Amino acid sequence: MTNRTHLELPEAFAALGLDNAILLALAEIHFREPSEIQKRLIPVALRGVDVIGQARTGTGKTAAFGLPILQRMDPGQAFQALVVVPTRELAVQVEAELLRFARHTALRLQVVYGGQKVTHDLKLLERQPHLVVGTPGRIIDLNERGALPLHNMKFVVCDEVDRMFDIGFRDDVRKILTACAAPHQTILVSATINDDIERLVAKHTIHPERIFTSTNQETLTNPEAIQYFVGVQPWDKQRALHLLLKQENPKLAIIFCRTKRSVDKVAGSLSAHGINASPIHGDLLQAKRERVMRGFRTGKINVLVATDLASRGIDVHEITHIINYDVPEEAEVYVHRVGRTARMGATGRAFTFVSPGQAQLQTEIEKLINHLLEDYKISGFVPSPEPGRGHGFDKHRSSAGSVSPVDPQDADAHSAARAAPSAASAADTTVYSPTSFAAPSLESKPRPLSGRFPTRRRR
């Protein structure tokens, strides 16, 4: 048990206007210095005004909006605060963080999300929590059943608004905000702000204060994350990935794939070559997803292969590497992916595989983050010929834009998204050992490409 008499309350947080109950909790969990978004958002939120906050992922946004709300809530009134998040993983993470902050208050918190029986959530809400964290669909369902009243909410937070819009929750978010009919404080937090979000702001906030810690004049990604691109043909990506992991030897890494089928295929291949990798995507049962995440947090699994949706809410500070096996089709998605590493002052490395025909996607990413990706060469990697076409590149297909960027086995993305997890994804894995690992070898030695990989013209 913590000896409170010897705890020094964090003066930097006290200067923001937080009271002793909150400060004591912060001292116990070793919060000393607020991040930039915390320094700027907490005093404003304590005044009760609406707030629009833009900050990079991994900068302490949960504490930024959570601490002032916990301080201002009335322990005598149930159902007065709502936090809306895009995924179940993020819902669990946010509630766990808020519980740490609220440990010396009389407040009750509850998390609700899809993927479990609604009767389970109905039972939990009988406890009359003061604050509820949840995903949009489950919040609407519980509200329509009369179990989660929204009309008297005093505090409403929408976290990662851009991601909720990206994955199809635009109408649900609007419906929830409309249902919160009583006068309340609205806090919208997003890594990026686009026209859709501006329309939401115009309709559902009143003279909001805008707090931007990431602007067009600086990079949207953490400067502590060193970012690279790797020029590679679609058929060479798996072999390049094996060599990259051998070369980098990450402590904890997340590999992002576009489809569930790719996730299973990549995770299975890595496991077969002695890398302790596990897949995570929406087709996995919730219990399985939770087991995978526990293994990743404890280091029993050191490579996580994920879709974008499944990765939301992964709040693990020790992630050292992000690998975009499939380059994201939207630049904003890149920001969220890379935000998983170099969190709260740590360093990290991010790699994006770019194939011919994907130069424009890379350019859009670089424009958004205001930063050029560095060209990275994998030691010992020699490009192989296109399957069935002999050595080297066909002169009519060697220019950027002429080769499909999609793995031929993943051409039908819709079918891939519906595919069940493969047997390989369930394979037992062993701890990755660089000395015992051997990347797949080529059957014949191809003519190597000369010079820089032709992804695009550099500025």
Question: How many strands?
Answer: 14
What class would the helix/strand composition place it in?
A: alpha/beta
CATH topology of the largest domain: Rossmann fold
The structural domain count equals 2
The separation of the N and C termini measures: 58 Å
Cross-sheet strand order for the largest sheet: 3-4-2-5-6-1-7
CATH C-level name of the largest domain: Alpha Beta
What profile does the largest beta sheet have? 7 strands, parallel
**Which percent band covers the strand fraction?**
5-15%
Radius of gyration: 23 Å
User: Could you say which overall geometry the principal axes of the C-alpha atoms support?
Assistant: globular
CATH 4th-level superfamily of the largest domain: P-loop containing nucleotide triphosphate hydrolases
Q: Which CATH architecture of the largest domain is right? A: 3-Layer(aba) Sandwich
Low-confidence stretches: 391-459
List the helices and strands and how they pair.
Blueprint: H1 11-14, H2 20-28, H3 36-46, E1 51-54, H4 61-72, E2 81-84, H5 88-101, E3 109-112, H6 118-125, E4 131-134, H7 136-144, E5 155-159, H8 161-166, H9 170-179, E6 185-190, H10 195-204, E7 209-212, E8 225-231, H11 237-248, E9 253-256, H12 260-272, E10 277-280, H13 286-298, E11 303-306, H14 308-311, E12 321-324, H15 331-338, E13 348-354, H16 359-369, E14 374-375, H17 413-418
Parallel strand pairs: 1-6, 1-7, 2-4, 2-5, 3-4, 5-6, 8-13, 8-14, 9-11, 9-12, 10-11, 12-13
Helix pairs in contact: 3-4, 4-5, 7-9, 15-16
